[in-house]
Specification:
Number of helices: 12
Largest sheet: 8 strands, mixed
Shape: elongated
Order of helices and strands: HHHEEHEHEHEHEEEEHEHHHH
Helix content: 40-55%
Structural class: alpha+beta
Number of strands: 10
Strand order of the largest sheet: 3-9-8-7-4-5-6-10
Length: 343
């Protein structure tokens, strides 16, 4: 088992034989081992290469065997030194790998920081929005969730709107239909509209959003907890998707009327946009609280709308109400049944 030292099995047998009989010649080794002369000669050459057998000083042309204390120990020391050198190289390689990992991690972190920025606290959020508004050159798109807007929110948006209008920036904002329940918010939307903001309303919105020049977007970290902060997104892919989302919602939203929302062109028995949204959201398995938040109404109002819909449809469950509304073609994208089926 001396292969780890570089000594093959045949060479080891020749070396062992020479240690027992240092006076053996080539012919003696062939006779003693019972091998072909070529195999013995090859094994001897290997022993000579490893300095286990050397030329004789006393008898030129003959060989002398080196004691294992010297020969094998030298091989062992050489292998140990090579092993230590390899360990050293591995340690150096490990340090280089660590540097690569650190550089990669730093690069990834820089990339993430350029794509996503986290904002904590109302002050930080409004400061960044003010900065983005100052830098905005062509277009501002907005989803305004929550229904009636707080006085603080109304006051904060007016100077930003004025600055954008002065620079000729196109502004399009989508609010919830429930804003019509709050006179102060309706008056605020009138003010925005008079300053160039193209305002529309819809029954529900996925999340609050500001999209600046289709380059940066500000979104809440948690739509249900504004105190959790906001995210600033810069990545081209996600910004493109958010822009397409806005356009789809905008296409189906109704222009702000200044009074009550203008009804869509529907039959008398069809659902309003808000009622459609309620059925759709309930169909997604959302709770009354989440449905109310997305509509911008109180939980009590949301439950009232749900109850009225179920009574109107003669449904005993929310699932049954959704199924009957789909059969009647009241839900967008649903095909009416050719003949109504009792449930």
């Amino acid at each position: 088992m001396l292969e780890p030292l570089g000594l093959g099995a045949h060479a080891a047998e020749v070396y062992r034989a020479m240690l027992k009989r240092p006076d053996f010649s080539l012919d003696d080794l062939v006779a003693n081992l019972g091998w072909q002369p070529e195999l013995v000669r090859s094994a001897l050459d290997e022993c000579v290469r490893l300095a286990l057998i050397k030329p004789s000083w006393d008898a030129p042309g003959e060989l002398r065997v080196v004691s294992p204390e010297v020969g094998l120990q030298a091989l062992l020391t050489r292998q140990e030194n090579e092993f230590l050198e390899r360990q050293k190289r591995i340690a150096e390689a490990r340090l280089e790998v660590a540097r690569f990992i650190d550089e990669y991690t730093a690069a990834q972190q820089r990339q993430r920081n350029t794509v996503i920025e986290r904002l904590i606290g109302i002050d930080e959020i409004r400061t960044r929005i003010e900065e983005f508004t100052q830098e905005c050159e062509t277009e501002l798109l907005a989803f305004a969730t929550g229904g009636p807007q707080t006085e603080a929110s109304r006051e904060a948006s007016r100077p930003l709107c004025e600055k954008l209008a002065q620079r000729g920036v196109v502004m399009r904002s989508i609010y919830l239909d429930s804003v019509y329940n709050d006179p102060a918010t309706v008056e605020h939307l009138r003010w925005l509209h008079s300053h160039g903001d193209q305002v529309r309303t819809t029954a529900s919105l996925p999340s609050r959003m500001l999209l600046f020049d289709r380059m940066r977007a500000v979104l809440p970290i948690d739509p249900d907890a504004s105190a959790a902060g906001a995210l600033v997104l810069h990545g081209r892919g996600i910004i493109t998707i958010l822009g397409e989302l806005f356009e789809r919602v905008w296409e189906n939203a109704l222009p702000f009327s200044g009074g009550r929302p203008q009804p869509r062109d529907r039959g008398g028995e069809e659902l309003s946009g808000q009622e459609q949204a309620v059925l759709r959201l309930l169909g997604e398995g959302l709770t009354d609280e989440v449905v109310a938040r997305k509509l911008g109404v109180s939980v009590r109002t949301g439950r009232r709308i749900t109850a009225e819909l179920m009574g109107r449809l003669g449904a005993r469950s929310r699932f049954q109400a959704g199924l009957r509304a789909a059969q009647l073609g009241w839900l967008e994208g649903a095909e009416p049944e050719s003949s109504s089926t009792a449930v």
